[in-house]
Amino acid sequence: MTSTDGRPPVEFDFRALSARDRYKLMIGTIVPRPIALVTTVDVNGRFNAAPFSFFNCLSADPPILALGIENHADMSFKDTAANIRATEVFTVNIVSMAIAEAMHVCAAAFPPGVDEIAVAGLTAVKGRTIAAPHLAEAPAAFECRRHTTLEIGRSREIVLGEILFAHYRPEVIDAERLRIDPVALDAIARLGGDTCSTIRDRFEMKTPKAEDLPLVPDGERERR
């Protein structure tokens, strides 16, 4: 991993870094990360919405996605984690460029009980299979039931959710072919710090067939 001008690589022993320093390296390097605007409901029927960029899909059979949720500084649960524990359900709304600013509003540290959906000017729509709403303005949304919660440490947990139902704006999907139009989806992603990105620059790269590739001799493979 030497640079083109001969400089040695910059290396870090993660075991010796603080949690904050590990976080900075990870979020600046593991990019782009999709953003889940997660909507939940508490036991009193009050809605909550919060964005998470520690998010991705993990399995299609069963259909599982994952959220990484950090606790408050005093180790108490954030509203999203508390609501999922209480109700066992949540909805992941995909964030498009059109609702990026509204998503950002939902990231503010409002006190418990504040309806971020209303404050952000978004529209909550009743779920088809669960109590948590989805957002009318989102290009796509997944209604999920909590599958597993992994306690990673005192400060963070990973919630695995099984997708029960999906919503798409009609311009986003070819329903017959189940093809998503990335232009219509117009999803944004998180980079490091406050920087976000779009997916508007794209290219295709087909996976090669093994029979079309030159074989590397065993001796050469070992030397590599």
Can you offer a commentary on this structure?
The structure is a single chain. With about 220 residues, the protein is an alpha+beta fold. The protein has one domain: Electron Transport, Fmn-binding Protein, Chain A (Pnp Oxidase, Chain A, Roll). The protein is about 20% helix and about 35% strand. The protein has 6 helices and 14 strands. It has helices at about 20-30, 80-85, 100-105, 115-120, 180-185, 220-224, and strands spanning about 35, 35-40, 45-50, 55-60, 65-70, 90-95, 125, 135, 140-150, 155-170, 175, 180, 190, 195-200. Strands 3-2-6-9-10-5-4 form a 7-stranded antiparallel β-sheet. Strands 1-13-14 form a 3-stranded antiparallel β-sheet, with no helix packed on it. Strand 9 and strand 10 (about 155-170) form a beta hairpin. It is globular, with a radius of gyration of 21 Å. The two termini are about 15 Å apart. The model has no long low-confidence stretch (mean pLDDT about 90).
